[in-house]
């Protein structure tokens, strides 16, 4: 099988950074065409610099990083520095990258890639889905160039930024609604699944013990990350959200889900950004919603791959 053409849209963010490392460590499976950044966990200038820092750490400065939308479609930006630290990559002290930065806007890059690609491209969205929504509004024909969208976002159960909503979709619920209603092949990995994939001390130590700059940077970031989620959600350890998307693309056998009809609340006072999912037959479903994950398998995959960088 030739490597799958892939674009990652993200807001690094510690867990985004680990997801990028997992993808960068998997060149046999992914032809990573580019990384697009969006404002989310931290403002756009930081998410863009952080994506470039991670490419530099992985010794892949050849992967272009395109800066995208600096704010959600309608709402003001909400960040998550209490989870990721003020820089977005708390715990890691990674140098400012020197590779040249493409001038093209992320939305223009997405439109160009999806309308000119010889084979359909997979898009992983790991942050507020603003860039994809704007691209869909500007050029609906891009749908034909998208193989599938795999999105970290949403929750069937409790949210993490409000009782009802997950962070990515709460930051830009209007963008999420555009994406969910676009009729694209869509897979959602929400909190119900990512809260099963937690960084236990043993898993953290396995990354640290790789003894490489990448393993040690990953462990340093994860050591400081997501402690609040333990208290908020009664988890055994901090959840690792975004790498689940990349792990799903690499090893779908580690996950299970089913077809559902998905909608996003954009008008509610208490439930803004809530995903409302209704299990239904394939014919009326607009998404596959992943519900369970093999956490041990995902961490084994992550540790094995990061060991290659
Ligand atoms: C999502 O929110 C962000 O803080 C994480 O990077 C992840 O994409 C989890 O709700
Ligand atoms: Ca993210």
Can you describe what's shown?
β1, α1 (about 15-25) and β2 (about 30-35) form a beta-alpha-beta unit. The two termini are about 20 Å apart. The chain is α/β, with parallel strands linked by helices and about 300 residues long. α4 (about 105-115) packs across α5 and α9 runs antiparallel to α10 (about 215-225). The protein has a single domain (about 5-305), classed as Ribonucleoside hydrolase-like (Inosine-uridine Nucleoside N-ribohydrolase, Chain A). About 35% of the residues lie in helices and about 20% in strands. The longest helix has 14 residues, at about 45-55. A nine-stranded mixed sheet has the order 3-2-1-4-5-6-9-7-8, with helices on both faces. The protein contains 13 helices and nine strands. The site of calcium ion has 10 residues, from α1.
Number of helices: 13
N-to-C order of helices and strands: EHEHEHHEHEHHEHHHHHEEEH
Rounded to an integer in angstroms, the radius of gyration calculated over CA atoms is 18 Å
End-to-end CA span = 22 Å
* Beta-strand proportion: 15-25%
Helix/strand class: alpha/beta
Largest sheet: 9 strands, mixed
Bound molecules: beta-D-ribofuranose, calcium ion
Q: Strand order across the biggest sheet?
A: 3-2-1-4-5-6-9-7-8
CATH architecture verdict: Alpha-Beta Complex
Q: What's the CATH H-level homologous superfamily?
A: Ribonucleoside hydrolase-like
- For the record, the count of structural domains works out to 1
CATH top level is Alpha Beta
Number of beta-strand segments: 9
Runs in which pLDDT lies below 50 for 5 or more consecutive residues are none
Mean pLDDT: 95
| CATH topology annotation | Inosine-uridine Nucleoside N-ribohydrolase, Chain A
Shape summary? globular
